[in-house]
Amino acid sequence: MKELISISKAIEILSFIYVDMLGKERISIFKAKDRVLAQDIVAHIDVPGFDRSAMDGYAIKAEDTFGSSDKRPSSFKLKGDSDDESAPCRIGHGDAIKVHTGSVVPKGANAVVRFEDAVEVGGSIKVFKTIIPGKNISYKGEDIKCGNIILRSGRILRSQHIGMIASLGYGSIEVYRRPVVAVFATGDDLVEVGSLPTEGKTLNSNIPMIYGSLKELGCKVIYLGIAENKEEGILAKLNLAIEKADAVITIGGMSVGNKDIVPQVIGGTGKILFHGVRIRPGKLCGAAVVGKRPVLMLPGYPVAALLTFKKFFPVILSRMMGNSEYPGKEINFFVRPKTKISTREDSTYLVKVNVYKYLAEPVNIYSDVMLSSMVNVNAILEIPEEINEVTPEDMIECTYLG
Description:
Molybdenum Cofactor Biosythetic Enzyme, Chain A; Molybdopterin biosynthesis moeA protein, domain 3; six-stranded mixed β-sheet; 6 helices
């Protein structure tokens, strides 16, 4: 194993790897939630498309109210209701037309008086205060101007984005194709879940965990099973993965022991980008490119596998979509640790915590083996390698896990 690199260096490397980009597909906006936009969204219309009333009230010329007061109200002749097709489409001085929220403001009007700010008497209305021009009117193009770029390619689409796209008349849009990811584990001691392991054997619990994590990122997953811990066994799984998928994840076989040969096998057919990161847990993770396919090599310890996956695989997915927003983008906020946390200066520590009201309680800080330590964890503190202690007086950034 070569010299360990920093987290920031690993992310930089993954952000610029030369891999095949994912293709694009056109889908209905009803299916666009959480997909990654693959086109710029340009406004082909103004929003709103006409001058419209923002209130229920009366459309008037604002200057006709200048100087109005309780003692000297302005008087307007009521010319009709905008809901009535026979109502005039234009008003003059001293005229008023009843309008409703969202209805077209008649020509000549430059303000809307709210119903509660006027008194209707027979066929006229009285206004007791000065109304400013533009009051209670949403003008054409006030929200969005025709020709403007509203959303850029690479944006992860949330419900508010979809609503905006729909308001511009788009019924379908281009998004990046869902990535296909092949996953396999290595280790002669592993047995598949669903059976009871005999002495010396370990259940392959990492695979369902990483499988679920990939699904959370919107990936299609191909599980290729457990590779025999020999060069030919690992190579056979790798070749199949490269043939069937856009990206590959391996789990296990990343240490420096005689049986941990995953980097050696992958390096023999592709290019190792890094093997070893100054991160705890998870320093034995790595990445490679084989045939323009990115490969993330995860350590076998469950906690280390999960945390390094969450740290690095979204970066790979982003790169495959032209450096778009990270799928499953992290939600970060600042907290105070409940107790003092001491770390070594040679590594970045990913500290498991349970956060309640911005107070973070560490959970089994130094364990990368016990998966049970993750069950009651809802966030991760990332303590940089240049810091070796944080106290309850410190504010530190935290990543929400859910």
